[in-house]
Amino acid sequence: MTLRLESLRLLYPDGDRDLVALDDAALTVEAGELVAVTGPSGSGKSSLLAVAGLLVTPASGTVRIAGQDVSARSPAARDRVRRERIGFVFQQSNLLASLTALDQLMLVGTMVGRPREDRAHELLDRVGLTGKEHRRPHQLSGGERQRVGVARALMGDPAVLLVDEPTSALDRERGRQVMTLLREITKESATATVVVTHDVEHLDLADKTVTMRDGRTSKPLADHDLLPARKAPADHPPRP
Amino acid sequence: MFIALRDLRFARGRFALLGAVISLMTLMVVLLTGLTSGLGAASVSAISALPTEHVALAAPPGQTDPQFALSALPVDTVDRLGAQPGVRAARPLGISTSRLTAGDKTAPVSVFGTDSSLLPDQVRVPDSLGVAPGTEVELGGQRLTVAAVGDETSFSHLPVVHTAIGTWHKIARSESLTGVLLELTADPADPADIGAATGTLVLTREDAYDAVGGYAAEQGSLTMIRVLLLIVSALVVGAFFTVWTMQRGPDLAVVRAMGASRGYLLRDALGQAAVVLALGTVTGAAAATGLGLLARQAVPFVVDGGTVLIPLTLMITVGISGAAIAVRRVTTVDPLTALGASR
Ligand SMILES: Nc1ncnc2c1ncn2[C@@H]1O[C@H](COP(=O)(O)OP(=O)(O)O)[C@@H](O)[C@H]1O
Ligand SMILES: [Mg+2]
């Protein structure tokens, strides 16, 4: 299912006048496509993710999932869309301290009415956490926590995967592993994936890259346009 | 309650501490309730066992409240009250404090001169005095025979013995009466009018409790302590869950971002409070029941459904109210804060 953001405008009240966080921002992500969003700090990357994830309502513009405008719905209906169509991966993984890795996933399972433990195990296996299902966040490394976060986001079988700075708390190698995992999962689960990152190193793993500046989105570029010198890795599918 | 139960297990130290505090508060409230009830009975159980619904006492001078200890009425008041419209029957009531001696045992007692079934120089005593029927006893200088044993009641913390009114006059060395027992007709005149016409105050049995020396002050101060304990309990529970909910803020924002509704989080948080409260209060009430059963062998103490379940219910109610006010804020958590804090 396609995620389509159209002419989004988002304002934050700031003293007498409003601060423009998004200004005619637009983005289209097809199912099975991973789009990276980069840009300087304060350029509106997180705001774009927040609007796409129905955490805030834009002043104008629309968010469409599979063609349906979901941004204008009631708060309860938006909660439901977040539960059933959207998966979030947060900057610091943001796992709940009291829950084991397995329970982080089962919480989502119970919220969407599919508390399937076999599915949770399968996803934890998929992200390489076999044998660590019963550890709590403080017993996991930063990279492992981030991978639990990825598995948790998939537990509700989302159509849209929204990822906020997944590598910022990780070293280069772990960061690359997580980005590679996100790419693979996007292909396997056919999610429309948006990854906010200012790690230009991993942009080659994205299908498209959008750069933001002052709340505006650039025209999407394929990564070889942005970084012509970088050679695609072996597992990279051929581009049209 | 998916998160609630896991949080309880994970932060069990903190919740055990709260549970222990709730448990101790409940223990105190239940013990005080049993004691209040026990002291009340020691003070007025003989009044609640009076054979009539109403009792007339001497109207005290000025605006002061009537008191059994100060009430004295001429004997003819019985007839004058009996002649009032709305009065079906009037019987003399004498109450005095005296000393009962049986063999080498002596005990202070309250003497009630109301029992017209007793012959002159006969006395009916409660079991607890340990005197067998037929025994000769001395009561206020009079030699009496124990005619019957039973009816454990007390008045002003003294066990009550019963005599006929004639015998009572001799024991109390008094020409007058303490009061008059009144049986009113089914459709009675205003008791206040009956009192005004005869220079008395007509009270119901329950209102007459306050005319027993010390009863109102005793019950009032114990009740005030219980109310304070309930208020403190609500505040303690409220304070705990306020801090707890604030600490959980970031977690709650994440769960909201993942699509949990406000109602889901509220139910989860209230369920958690209910579990802690239920465990804490039931433990406390059980301990208080055990202690009360031991204590009532030595002090006036009542353990029954009312003295245990009513304070238990009150504790749970005030606790849930305190928690509800505190955890309401889970509904105001902004899921936006789950995204990398931009400022
Ligand atoms: N909750 C907020 N309230 C007010 N202003 C905000 C808030 N969040 C972000 N902003 C402002 O909006 C602009 C865009 O921020 P953000 O989307 O977080 O950028 P980025 O993620 O690219 O760093 C910045 O100027 C930021 O200060
Ligand atoms: Mg940001």
From TrEMBL, chain A:
Pfam family, one: ABC_tran
Coiled-coil region: none
Keywords of the record: ATP-binding, Nucleotide-binding, Transport
Positions of the UniProt region annotated as Disordered: 214-240
Residue stretches making up the ABC transporter domain: 3-239
Keyword Protein biosynthesis: no
The keyword Transport is assigned to this record: yes
PROSITE patterns found in the cross-reference section: ABC_TRANSPORTER_1, ABC_TRANSPORTER_2
InterPro entries: AAA+_ATPase (IPR003593), ABC_transporter-like_ATP-bd (IPR003439), ABC_transporter-like_CS (IPR017871), ABC_transpr_LolD-like (IPR015854), MacB-like_ATP-bd (IPR017911), P-loop_NTPase (IPR027417)
Alphabetized GO MF terms: ATP binding
PANTHER family linked: ABC TRANSPORTER RELATED (PTHR24220:SF685), IMPORT ATP-BINDING PROTEIN (PTHR24220)
Protein's name in the database: ABC transporter ATP-binding protein
UniProtKB/TrEMBL annotation, chain B:
Keyword Membrane included in the entry's annotation: yes
Subcellular location: Cell membrane
Keyword field contains Transmembrane helix: yes
Membrane topology: Multi-pass membrane protein
Domain ABC3 transporter permease C-terminal: 226-334
TM segment ranges: 224-244, 265-288, 308-327
Keywords of this entry: Cell membrane, Membrane, Transmembrane, Transmembrane helix, Transport
Listed Pfam families: FtsX
Protein name per Swiss-Prot or TrEMBL: ABC transporter permease
Source organism of this protein record: Actinokineospora xionganensis
